[in-house]
Every structure is written in C-alpha cells, then in structure tokens.
Amino acid sequence: MDKRKKIIISGYYGFGNLGDEAILISIIDRLNAEVENPEIVVLYTKAESEQLKAYKNVRCVYRMNPISIFFEMLNADLVISGGGGLLQDSTGFTTVLYYLGIVKMALFLKKKVLFYAQGIGPLNLDKSKKLITNTVNKVNFITVRDNDSAELLKSLKIDKAPVVVTADPVISMEKLPQNEIDELVKKYIPNFKKNNNPNIGISARPWKSDNNYIEILAKSCDELIKKYNANIYIIPFQIQQDLAICKEIKEKMEGEAEIIMPPNSEDSIFQFSPKEIAGIIGQMDLIIAMRLHALIFSFPFKIPSAGIVYDPKVGIFAKQAGMESFNLDSFKKEDVIGFVGNNLNKNYSNDSFDKLYNQSILTGKIASDMLSNISAEEIIKKRGLILYDRIS
User: Fold this and answer.
1) Is residue 135 domain-shared with residue 239, that is, in the same domain?
2) DSSP states of 1-41
3) With pLDDT > 70 as the criterion, what percentage of the chain qualifies?
C-alpha cells in the first residue's frame, strides 16, 4: 500500500474570519478531491477546530509552536502557504515575517512548497520586499489569485520559481443544498421576507478613512427603504471586528435593519460556517460589500454585487467578476442608490464564472501533481499553463 501523503497548510486560520475559513475548507475539499486520502495538518490558532471536526483526515497544530511545526514537517510531503493575502505588510512586518518563517523552515527541511492562490500585497516596507525576494524565489511553485499579485512578484524579481495565475479557492467552494439553506434562513432570519421587495445584504468592516462610510451606508440604507421598500440585512464576517460597525450602521439608520447574527455569537470567534453564510448571502437580491469574500460568496449565485474598495484585492476581484466597485475614501450615497436602481430585478450575467471556477480548482491539481513527484516543468506542460512572465 502506498504511503499516505502528508500536507501541511499555513495561513490565517482560526481567527474567526469567515473569508479565511472559507479559503481553508475550500483548499481541504479540493485536496481531498485530487489526492487519495491525504493526511492534512493545518497550522491553527489552537490544537483543535470545531469547523474542521467533520474532516477525519485533518489535524490542527498550534501555529505559534515552532517545535511542533518542525516535527510535523519532518515527514511532510508538501507544505502549502495560503491562500489569502498572507504576504502583505499593511498589518505590520511581523505578518510577512511569520508566513515566510514557515516557508523558510520547510525549505530548510528540503520540503516541497506550493503557494496556493495567494494575493500578494500591499507591500510598503523595503524589508518586506527584500525578504520576499530572498525567500520566495526558492519555493517550488507559485500560484496567485490575480494578475496584480503576479505583477508585484515580477517587480520583486521573483523569476526563478514558476508563477501562474489561478483564482481564489472559494470560487469553487461547494454550495449547501437549497433545503439546508432554507432551514438556515428559517432558523436564523425568521423575519426574512420573500416578497417583491428587494432583500439587500450589507457587509462592512472597520477601516481608517476620512470618508464617513458608516454614515454613508446608514443613509444609503434609509434611502433604499424609502425608495424601494427594501429589506436591509447587515452581515458581520468577523464578529470581533465587524459587529460593532454593523451595530453602528443600524443605530444611525432611521429605518429598520436586521443584523444576521451567528448561532454562537457569544463565542465572539466562531460563527456560521462559510458554507452557511454563503448560502444565506445567496438568498439576497443584491450585495454591497467591503469584505472580499462576501462578493465571492455571491458570485456563484449570480447576485448583482458591488464592492467597497478598502484594499486593492476587493477592486481586483470585482473587476475579474464583472462587478461594480466604489472607492472607500470617495464613494457617496448616490453611488449606492445608483447601483441598486441599475441592478434591481436584473439577472446578473457572470460570464466569467466558468473561467474563474476552472482556475480555482486548478491549484489543487497542481498540488496533486507535486505530490506525484512531477516536476514544475512537466506540470506546466501537462496542464497547459502559461507562466506569468510569458504573458504579453
């Protein structure tokens, strides 16, 4: 019998961010689809996860215990870094230092390393850029989720490791059956209205801006209620960060809005599962979102959606998906009202979905090829891949 393949996954996992948890389960599901009974070890905030208990072949190791991580890596067949926006220093240099520290450990142990559909940047510090150039050139294979990330790597002279543009893993996340979604809505949004009035989902998060976006969103929601008799649902994605903002929007409104609260909100970390909140978002008629993965969750359901760009990644995905977007620092109430008026009762035609879906599952196939000891050159040929530096 062939030895089970052991895969270690490093990322921003276990912090209660629905987008990152969605990335994790999407990677795990894809690996399970492409690799026969792999042993998967996730570097997590603690040694176990309620979200991952359903996976019998997945274990968690505390992400800040280098000794445990080292011994886990000794017999690993592949180390995955990603997905998500790990290599960025808007949250500080220590973010880059941590994730590249894991990569350096894997390289020291001569392990294969795959960057899994990462979003690169923003990078503002010279020391971040230098560390990335010195480390990332040594990994086996790099996939990024957009051209902007690939272009940034190219500017940092990442020219030794192959770089291929794929797509965010969550685009191919499996949907819940409609009957399960209906039960979720019935249980957690008992006042959800299925009538001719539009159900509009709002996703907001804290961010520094001179534009009073909380006030703008509150006034926009009031205008939508007056003009279209809209039902407003505000959706926190990371309870510790988003809930206070969601409550502030609701408090500033003159009309009514409902905050969609998770079943275990008192926990302050764990919420709905990613598939559950994706299913709930899928029942909305329109989505206006700061959170990137609120847009990604809406994508397979063909819901007209607009991103509020606090970070370039939101605008990048909106452009990929053919969605509208507004800049956080300059958008106005009229932008929101105009978007809703232009898209109300309009079936969003997401022609790019099939392409992005196929790119999303491609990274898992590359991981499987690497586990089968296929070289990077052979993978590129086998999968018909185009290296980013060869794209005109």
Assistant:
1) no
2) -PPPPEEEEESS-SSS-HHHHHHHHHHHHHHHHHSSS-EEE
3) 95
